[in-house]
Design brief:
alpha/beta, Rossmann fold, seven-stranded mixed β-sheet, 5 helices
C-alpha cells in the first residue's frame, strides 16, 4: 500500500454523505483532544493532512480519508468535551453511534486514550459498546512521550488493568516520536 497516496474524501454528518463502495474502513474514536488527527498525520507523514487542533471539540463531522484507493480512515468527533451544549453532545453521540452501528465497511476501531490519564467512564462505555457489537478493535495509548519514564510502565499497566483487555490489542503511540507507527501501518496494510 502506498501511504503517500492519501487524500481527504469528505466531511459527513449523515449516512447519505458517506463514501460509496465497499472499501474497508478503520475508525478513530476517543475523547476530544486525544490525538486522533495527530495519529493520522504522523502515520501518513503529512503535517496538516487531518485537521488537528489544540482546541478540544474541533472535529464536529465524520471525516473520511482514503489511502491508496484501498482503505478509508475515518476520524469521528471526539466525545467527553464539556464546553459544548448538551444538544451538541447529543448530536455528536448520535452521529458516532449511527456510523458505528450501521456501517458495513467498518472493519476495525482504534480507540484512542491519553496515556497520561486513567480511562474515563466514556472510554469504558466505548469498550463495552465495541465488545457488545463484536467489532475488531485496538486501544491506542497516545501521548506516551509526555509520560515520565519512571512512571511509564506503572501508568500503562494501570490503563490495561482498568480496561481489562488483551495486551495484544494495546498499542502505545506518540505523534512526536513516531513510537509504534510501523505497527499501526501494518494494521492498515492488513486490509489491502
Amino acid at each position: 500500500m502506498n501511504f503517500h497516496n492519501a487524500e481527504f474524501v469528505i466531511s459527513a454528518v449523515n449516512e447519505s454523505q458517506y463514501p460509496k463502495g465497499n472499501l474497508p474502513e478503520i475508525a478513530m474514536v476517543g475523547r476530544s483532544n486525544v490525538g486522533k488527527s495527530s495519529l493520522i498525520n504522523k502515520v501518513l507523514n503529512r503535517k496538516n493532512f487531518a485537521r488537528a487542533s489544540s482546541k478540544p471539540g474541533k472535529t464536529t463531522t465524520i471525516n473520511f480519508y482514503n489511502i491508496d484507493k484501498k482503505i478509508n480512515i475515518v476520524d469521528l468527533p471526539g466525545y467527553g468535551y464539556a464546553k459544548v451544549s448538551k444538544n451538541e453532545k447529543l448530536s455528536w453521540a448520535n452521529m458516532i453511534n449511527h456510523y458505528l452501528e450501521g456501517r458495513q465497511q467498518l472493519k476495525t476501531i482504534f480507540l484512542l486514550i491519553d496515556a497520561r490519564h486513567t480511562p474515563t467512564e466514556d472510554d469504558l462505555m466505548m469498550i463495552d459498546w465495541i465488545e457488545h457489537y463484536q467489532i475488531d478493535y485496538y486501544v491506542i495509548a497516545t501521548k506516551t512521550d509526555k509520560l515520565k519514564p519512571s512512571l511509564r510502565k506503572q501508568q500503562l499497566d494501570e490503563i490495561l488493568n482498568i480496561l481489562e483487555i488483551d495486551d495484544k490489542k494495546f498499542i502505545t503511540f506518540s505523534a512526536q516520536t513516531g513510537e509504534n507507527k510501523d505497527n499501526i501501518l501494518k494494521i492498515f496494510s492488513s486490509f489491502e
